[in-house]
Amino acid sequence: MAHCVEVDSLSKHYRDFLLDAVSFVVPEGTVMGLVGENGAGKSTVIRLILGAIKRDAGKVKLFGTEWETRVPNAIKDQIGVVFDDCYFPVSLSPNQLGWTLSSIYRQWDSILFNQLLNRFDVPPDKKIKELSRGNKMKLSIVCALSHRPKLLVLDEPTGGLDPVVRTEVLDMFQTFMEDERHSIIFSSHITTDLERIADYVTFIHKGKIILSETKDDLLDRYGLFKGPRDQIEHIEKGDFVSVRVNRYGLEALSSDKEHTMRTYPQLICDQASIDDILYHLTSDQSRTREDVAL
Fold this sequence. Notes:
alpha/beta; Rossmann fold; 2 domains; six-stranded mixed sheet; 10 helices
């Protein structure tokens, strides 16, 4: 399988943060979800991939081409980028913005741009500063799609949107992925969005990758086990990723739920969400966590 993006030992050092030898690949035709707490390094990874900041070490390949100091223009034309806010000149209308971008992108498709504005009910003649947050975000995505990229790079595109607009935005991404040559890198702290559209999930914690695999394998393999508090005396903590005990009982994450179900039939096994897995993977694994009831 060809890879749309290849990241190898990517590193960036700031005074108070280190992105440490991050490596992963995005196969062509797939959606990669980047997950992690605020400040974990997700946006840093995206900016390094795009060449917006200079890397200290590591390699980046886009569509099989490795670049050193500057992403070639021919590759830039194949990438659509959406950040968590609309950074276009707010005095322009969407129609005026479309005319401006048509002189920048060699593959700009004005017909597609107008079709997408209409499809997603973005007012074409209203100034950007007068648009709702949802319409600003939809406009950003319409612009990213209208030069017909092969790769979408999305940094928190659904943050702050209401559920209806979020669903519309996710529909736009799923439509984009109907072409099997297309790929998406999607950074988000809203993990339910990733559960809906991602094929792969990469967990970043404090500048390091702690897990990267297919979403389906991840959700199939991990299980969240629950039981009374006194069960803490009857389990081997080494059998679990982490264990929490609070006033409601015991909660433990297993990375092999089938084996754990056989070993501990007295515990109830629930489906683990990406949120559950992220929380337990990034909690203190050296001891059982005792939550204090207030």
